Amino acid sequence: KIFTASKDTYITNKILRNTSRATDANLGAASTLDLFKLYDESVISGETTPIELSRALIKFNTTDISSSLEGKVSFDHSSFKCHLKLSDLQGGSIAPEDFNLVVYPLSQSFDEGLGADVSNLGFLDRANWITASFTNNTNVLWKTTGARSVGLLGSSDIDIIDSGSIGGSVVQLYRSQYFEKGTEDLFVDITTPLSAAMCGIIPSHGFLIAYSGSEETDAKSRFVKRFASRHVKNQYIRPKIIVSYDDTIVDNHKDSEFNLTGSLFLKTFQRGSPANLVSGSAASEIAGNNCILVKLYTGSFTK
Question: Structure pTM?
Fold first, then answer.
C-alpha cells in the first residue's frame, strides 16, 4: 500500500543579499524539498563564519494508513514494514557527496503554507525557520529556531523526538541514511515511529529531515540535495510511505497427511466483501466459536 504526503515544505535561514536571513520565508508550495548547508559562503553583520541551513518537514495522514489495515488480522505481523521514500530530483544541479540525512518524528504540528519563491525567498508565511504554525490567531513558534530542539518523547520543550518509551522499553525513534554519491533516493524504515503514531503513543505530526548534527556544524558546504515534493507534477515521484506485509494463507487441504499438523481455511464473501456464512430460511449468520462442524471421511485410493 502506498500513501502520499498530506503536506510538506522546507524551512531555511539562508542569507539574502548579505543583509538579512530568510527566517520568515515559506516554501510550502514549492515543487522540491531542498536540503543544503552553506559554510562561510556569504557575509552578514555580526557573524564571522556564517552557516546557512535548510530542513524539510513532511506529514502523512496516519488515519488513512490505520483504516487501510482494518480487518487485516490474518497477516504476519513480523512482516509489517513502513518505509519513507523521497525521490531524488537533482535536475542539472550538482549534488553533495558523502553525507547522512536523519529523519526525526516531529513533536509539534506545522502549517504547509503557500510559498513557492525558491529564488528570492520573498513569500512570508508559516511554517518558516521561526514559526511552526498559526493557530487560534496566534503564531506558534518552534521551541528552537529551525525546529531543532530534540529530546525524549513527552518532553514539553522539544520540536523533534529522538527516543521514547514504547512497550516498556526506551527505543530510538529517529532513522538515518548514508548518501555516498548524493543522487540516491531517501528510503528509510520508519516502522516503529509510524506504528507508534498510528497507535497514539507519539504525536502524529510528521517528520523533520535534516543533515546529521555534525554535518550541520562542520566547516563544509553541502549544496544542494533536492527531493521532489508533493507539489511536483509527476505524481509517481511524490513523497510516499510504502506499507508492506505478508497476508498469504497456506491451506493444506490438498496435501494433508496423518501425524502432521496442517491448516484448513474457509473464506466466504458476499459480492466480493468478506461475510459470515448464513443458515436456514431466515439466512441467519453463523459466527462465533464452535459454530461449524468439520467432518473428516476416510476413503480408498488406487493407482
Answer: 0.86
